[in-house]
Write a structure and sequence with these properties.
The chain contains 10 helices and 8 strands. By secondary structure, the chain is of the alpha/beta class. The longest helix has 34 residues. The chain binds uridine-5'-diphosphate and magnesium ion.
Length: 323
């Protein structure tokens, strides 16, 4: 940790999907906080193809505050894509990513920035609690994080997307070509001098959570398969288990044949056919899913498509680093 008290531009990235009610408050609270602390900053809103007036509201903020910029996607590409678009737009010496609904307490940005000044390159926000959720959601989240933690070798149970990244960490992430980038895990996976800041998840003040059961399930499956080949190994494991069973059953059937009771067991045959048939199809499905992922990656389509941009007055040039 060489330098102390360095001053550098802080980029704040806020993904926003149908957040017309939250955007003005986010711009005001974060802008006020950082100006008050004399931290040079820019605020980048990424409108993830919202269907409400989020984009107009972002443009209005850019008109009011010179530090505010906005990027609008051509359609909804998801939060991960929005985060990466924000990172690609950021010009700061460090960048902080947080939710636009302010469930990630903005005051913590100051603490994160101080830690960055002390020389840390990745400052992770970790949740002290998960906020209010129903028990089923908590159970699903626990299962998801234990799988992801196993796959990455990093404890992800309290991880969040609330992170501050040094320029070098941002550039490392942007250089990754994978389309299914899972920000929360990748930003830990890249390493660097890392520390953590605890925060309490705040209740959402406006609007509602953008996650449905379906989108959460898709999110879990996509991210598990993008980080882990364990389901493929499960196929092998299933094969071994079925093989062991078949050895036992084989010996038993042979014994029946030898002792002359071989005609029995028609039900067993049907059950075995059904069981093995379904196991085979599930395994093919898992393999097929990974092939689909490879197909998606190999097509090399962009992670997102930018439809429009806006800048607060006083900005020059444009960071054209979108991928
Ligand atoms: N978000 C996004 N694209 C999406 C869904 C969500 O950019 O497709 C943003 C959303 O606007 C918010 C953040 O991601 O800033 C977290 O979303 P939300 O509050 O709905 O999730 P939760 O806090 O319930 O996990
Ligand atoms: Mg939220």
């Amino acid at each position: 940790m060489e330098e102390t008290n360095k001053i550098g531009l802080l980029s704040v990235v806020l993904p926003a999907y149908n957040e017309e009610a939250s955007v003005p408050r986010a711009a005001q609270v974060i802008g006020g906080l950082l100006s008050g602390a004399d931290i040079p900053h820019e605020i980048i809103f990424v409108d993830d193809g919202s269907r409400d007036h989020t984009w107009e509201v972002i443009q209005a903020q850019a008109g009011r505050y010179p530090q505010v910029r906005g990027v609008k996607f051509s359609r909804n590409f998801g939060k991960e894509a929005a985060i990466f678009a924000g990172l690609a737009q950021s010009r700061g010496a460090c960048t902080v990513v947080l939710d636009c609904d302010l469930q990630h307490p903005p005051e913590k940005i100051l603490e994160m920035y101080r830690l960055w000044q002390e020389g840390y390159q990745v400052v992770e926000g970790v949740k002290t609690s998960r906020g209010k959720e129903n028990p089923l959601h908590t159970l699903a989240a626990k299962t998801f994080y234990s799988v992801i933690s196993n796959a990455t070798g990093i404890d992800m149970s309290r991880a969040s997307d609330f992170k501050l990244l040094d320029r070098r960490a941002v550039d490392t992430l942007l250089a990754m070509r994978e389309k299914n980038a899972f920000f929360r895990a990748l930003s830990s996976w890249i390493g660097f001098q890392t520390t953590q800041v605890e925060f309490e998840v705040q209740p959402r003040l406006e609007g509602e959570s953008k996650w449905s059961l379906r989108s959460l399930t898709r999110y879990a499956v996509t991210n598990i398969t993008s980080f882990s080949a364990a389901p493929l190994q499960l196929v092998t494991l299933l094969g071994v288990v079925v093989f062991l069973c078949s050895v036992v059953l084989g010996i038993w059937s042979l014994w029946q044949k030898v002792t002359g009771q071989a005609l029995e067991g028609f039900t067993t045959v049907i059950l075995l056919q059904l069981l093995i048939g379904s196991i085979l199809m599930i395994c093919l499905g898992i393999i097929g899913y990974y092939i689909a992922k490879i197909y998606e990656e190999i097509k090399d389509r962009p992670r997102y498509i930018v439809a429009e941009r806006c800048e607060g007055q006083g900005h020059e040039g444009n960071a054209e680093k979108d991928i």
